Amino acid sequence: MSEAAPLFSVEEYRGRVRRFQDGMKTAQLDGLLLTTPADVFYVTGFLTRFWESPARPWFILVPAHGDPIAIIPSIGADLMGKSWLTDIRTWDAPDPADDGVSLLADAIVETIPNTGALGIPMGLETHLRMPLADFERVKIRIKPRRFVDATATVQRVREIKSEAEIAKIKTTCKIADRVFARVPEFASSGRPLDQIFRDFQIALLQEGADWVSYVAGGAGQGGYGDVISPATAKPLEKGDVLMLDTGAVRDGYFCDFDRNYSVGPPSAAVERAQDALFAATESVLETLRPGMTSADLYAIMVNALHDVGATAGGGRFGHGLGITLTEWPSFTAKDTTPLREGMVLTLEPGVEVSAGKFLVHEENIVLRANGPELLSARAPQELPKLE
Amino acid sequence: MSEAAPLFSVEEYRGRVRRFQDGMKTAQLDGLLLTTPADVFYVTGFLTRFWESPARPWFILVPAHGDPIAIIPSIGADLMGKSWLTDIRTWDAPDPADDGVSLLADAIVETIPNTGALGIPMGLETHLRMPLADFERVKIRIKPRRFVDATATVQRVREIKSEAEIAKIKTTCKIADRVFARVPEFASSGRPLDQIFRDFQIALLQEGADWVSYVAGGAGQGGYGDVISPATAKPLEKGDVLMLDTGAVRDGYFCDFDRNYSVGPPSAAVERAQDALFAATESVLETLRPGMTSADLYAIMVNALHDVGATAGGGRFGHGLGITLTEWPSFTAKDTTPLREGMVLTLEPGVEVSAGKFLVHEENIVLRANGPELLSARAPQELPKLE
User: Fold this and answer.
1) Chain B CB within 8 Å of residue A332 CB
2) What's the pTM?
3) Who contacts B160 (Cβ-Cβ below 8 Å, separation ≥6)?
4) What distance in Å separates residue A301's CA from the closest CA in chain B?
5) CB neighbourhood size of B122 (10 A)
6) What is residue A50's DSSP assignment?
7) What percent of chain A has a predicted confidence (pLDDT) above 70?
8) Interface predicted TM-score of the whole assembly (ipTM), two decimals
């Protein structure tokens, strides 16, 4: 990015705030308090890796009417000053005596009616990014105003991506597409997996990622087990299936998909698993429509696997995607979230090849009125081979 | 890392838990509940980038006596199974009906006496990494047991690093040392800052970082302003000072230091600022001893700057370092934390060169009985030049 080109227009941010405020009205909320990197970025465009430091809390207060207020450590004043926000209040953090508590409580008291309800996300897949003891202090300071759950208010807005957001995610997906095509350059029999993970990240940066927030993968004979461990120095061997998965970031927007490779020719069991997973994703691409639920989407994939005699495996079969690596909903039998036009989703079916050995496919899509549009280049039907 | 070489011995982890339990006894805590990546890693060695997904909570329950219990999503069972923990309880997360609440509450009820106090970190620089609504549910389920603040209990243990931990941090610092020596390979007049940031990350991976959790920096004529923004595409120019700062990670341990470079010859004001910062760090290296406080350390640096007529600038003048990019304490006038042998710290004095233009130096040290030992190679007294 360059100084001449902000990530989004001011109208984009104003539209987001207006949709929050519409949702707040429906939920009878008099304000919304946001504390996480993703929620702050969504409202303001404030993008920094400085969140990696847990030292300081950051607050955005969205009133029922009017523009948001930023209540932030002074070290962020310059960067927030470049955003569309004009009411930016700062303190020197970290302050062991009062780490923003008074400044935040004052802003709430000033903005929210005496008997008002202030929403914070406190449900599934959320957390409050501030010290709990300070939150209790704020609660007391703002009485009789009270905090209530605003998870749905935030999620129903953030989960529908604008065309500008979809373009950002597509750009990041294309970076990963180019890197997955280059995997044979650095992955082959005899190369240690930890070096492959490093080269994979290097390639993502070379192809335009600003940073690489997530890399996972696995390699094993006829499939892999655990896919959340860091890579070991174990070299690839003939008969291994290698999986690489990335959440690379460009302009604050993530991709999240994987690709599988066979080191030498795959076994018949691996070929069957590959065919089953390819078919499961195909059925979603053909039949998914807005109005279905997350559980419906999960069922499409599970049924497609069952149809060819494959055993569903792994965890959930995908999730939302955008300004965090994973967003709600989750494609499981238990999640009944309606899927709507404009949602960006990952399709992530898994198959158990043999006891404790899995294959997992992943694609990124945006759900359009007439069905899914791929954001990642469709994985090949046949497993690509490595030497 | 390789499968044959776990990060630390079981004795290392047992020692950490014993020290937590000693602290819990002093603080009259009957248990400790840990939810953040760093705290979970500290007790178990569970290291994964999967924390990047906010979808699932993870819990470690440290009882007053005996070994910790892991209450975690089933997707982590394999990896946690490789740790020294034997009591690992899992559920299929995310579960919209009960996302680990029952499993966690049951473990607490089983482990903590009826009238017991369960510690969680809720003070400065902490947060609770689980949905707030679920925390409230757990609170009700475990009554009359109650949650109390355990910030000090966790911090007084984690802030003293073992020799094995110090060796890990030193390894990561050496990776960054090698990369800072290579900066002239990819940074010179005309090169855009965002490409320099990418090349910097690539070099860190090439030199052995497992991943690069943090990169910051700045470039500007006679100093830089804001140092937390992402890089723009603006090319370096003669007269710029370039600063690059990184929190690279190897085996879960961070470095956190920066280096400054002058593009062409520096101005007299930049040379004076450089001299002042070098002198401020030197006085700490010469005079810091265990028993001083964070505020004392801050005063050493501020006084050294004043002695040469420089204006202190930037935020805090350093902090703790280890398994997060920044740990407590903070080197400010307000932080009275005693500095003790075995603490790993960053020294980060800043100077205002001219209105809104700063220079910031950073070094990583471990505090020994007889004073600081450098973990980063000392920055040169004279600013290195770029073409």
Assistant:
1) yes
2) 0.97
3) B340, B341, B342, B343
4) 18
5) 19
6) G
7) 99
8) 0.97
Query: Do A286 and A371 touch, CB atoms closer than 8 A?
Result: yes
Tokens of A71: 């209540």
Query: Residue A65 carries which side chain, given as an amino acid letter?
Result: H
* Token digits of residue B59: 């819990």
Q: For B247, what's the count of Cα atoms within 13 Å in the CB-facing half-sphere?
A: 22
Residue A1 has pLDDT above 50, yes or no: no
Mean pLDDT of chain A: 97
Residue holding tokens 């899914």?
A372
CATH, range B163-386: 3.90.230.10
Helix (H, G, I), strand (E, B) or coil at B367: strand
Distance CA A129, CA A70 (A): 15
Band (pLDDT 50/70/90 cuts) for residue A134 is very high
Q: Which residue has the tokens 């991709």?
A: A255
**pLDDT level of residue A5 (50, 70, 90 thresholds):** low
Separation in Å, CA of B15 to nearest CA in chain A: 24
Q: Which of A122, A202, A229 is closest, CB to CB, to B131? A: A122
pLDDT digits (tens, 9 = 90+) for A324-340: 999 999 999 999 999 99
CB of B236 within 8 A of CB of B199? no
| Nearest partner of B157 among B12, B330, B301, B317, judged by Cα | B12
* pLDDT value of position B4: 45
Question: Tokens at residue B318, please?
Answer: 């350093």
Task: Tell me which amino acid residue A94 is.
Answer: P
Domain residue spans in chain B? Answer: 10-158, 163-386
Cβ–Cβ < 8 Å for A369, A357: no
pLDDT in tens, B286-298: 999 999 999 999 9
**Looking at the partner chain, which of A53, A99, A127 has a beta carbon nearest the beta carbon of B325?**
A53
| Helices assigned H by DSSP within chain B | 10-26, 37-44, 77-81, 101-111, 132-141, 151-158, 163-186, 193-206, 268-287, 294-307
Q: How many residues does chain B have?
A: 387
A239-256: pLDDT as tens digits? 999 999 999 999 999 999
- The C-alpha of B375 sits at a distance from chain A's nearest C-alpha, in angstroms, of 20
Strand partners, A181: none
Neighbours of B70 (CB within 10 A): 25
CA-to-CA distance for A95 and A120, rounded, in angstroms? 24
Burial of A186 (C-beta count, 10 Å sphere; 0-12/13-18/19+):
middle
Phi, psi of B42 (to 5 degrees): -60, -40
B51, B88, B215, B228: best mutation site toward chain A, by most A Cβ within 10 Å? B228
The ranges of chain B with pLDDT < 70 are 1-5
Question: Hey, do B10-158 and B163-386 end up sharing a CATH topology, with the first three levels equal?
Answer: no
The token pair that represents B278 in the structure block: 């070098």
Q: How is domain B10-158 classified at the CATH fold level?
A: Creatine Amidinohydrolase; Chain A, domain 1 (3.40.350)
